[in-house]
Amino acid sequence: MFRNFIDTDLYERQGKALTNFKQTLPEVTSDLAQELTKDPYDFAFTGITTKYKKILKDALLNNITQFLIELGTGFAYVGREYRLQIGQTEKFIDLLFYNLNLSAYVVVEVKIGKFDFADAGQLGGYVVACNHILRKEGRDNPTIGILICKEKDNLVAQYALEASSLPLGISEYDLARLYPEKVEGTIPTIDELEKGILSEDECKK
Questions:
Q1: What global pTM score does this model have?
Q2: Which of 19, 24, 63, 128 could form an SS bridge with 169, CB 3.0 to 4.6 Å?
Q3: How far apart are CA 53 and CA 161, in angstroms?
């Protein structure tokens, strides 16, 4: 029964991120990239409720196996605060992954607040930098950027995506356990379970 809830929850979130993949990636790649996204991402496995960014990122990496499962199929962890030397300037990506199915680097930025235009600009800069510094021609497809924030205005996010020629996605995260809305009454209570066990025992007598 619990597995059914989890499956339903995943079905409702899978591929639901706001993205511009169809406009910025080849059709086959864009469909696969979209399917790998979620909205919202379920970060309840971290066991935290605080909004502080460093604590959240620490918790994600302390539970890296669960984090990779939540991200989806084919993600390999490359690094946190991944350093990029761009000219005379150092930049640090929150989290860098490589997706084996997409054959592409995936930049993940985690924001504890509400999404704004500037966030897309920063993410896009990291994507371009990865394409120049890390991507190998003939091996890697174009780098993809995913921004995971606590809250977003969908229209603001959509405008930001339309303004970019880079493959970007924007999702929210939730620190509370995600279940379908209509859960009450579908999971038996302890009393109901005990009554069911007693009824079974009486039938066997």
A1: 0.81
A2: 19
A3: 24
**pLDDT recorded at residue 31:** 95
Give the per-residue pLDDT at 161: 98
> What DSSP letter does each residue of 112-175 carry, written as one string?
EEE--HHHHHHHHHHHHHHHHHT--TTT-PPPEEEEEEEE--HHHHHHHHHT-SS-EEEEEEES
Q: Nearest Cα to 169, choosing from 15, 29, 56, 13?
A: 15
Backbone φ and ψ of 140, nearest 5°: -110, 140
CA–CA separation, 69 vs 173, rounded Å?
A: 15
Nearest to 93 by CA among 74, 103, 112, 78: 78
Q: Please identify which residue in the block is written with the tokens 């966030």.
A: 119
- Average pLDDT on 98-123 reads 97
CA distance 16 to 37: 7
Asked if 169 and 25 touch (Cβ cutoff 8 Å), the reply is no
Q: What is the pLDDT of residues 98-109, one digit of tens each?
A: 999 999 999 999
Residues 167 and 20: beta-carbon distance below 8 Å: yes
Rounded to whole angstroms, the Cα distance separating 175 from 48 reads 7
Q: Is the peptide bond before 167 cis (omega within 30 degrees of 0)?
A: no
Q: Please say whether the beta carbons of 37 and 17 come within 8 A.
A: yes
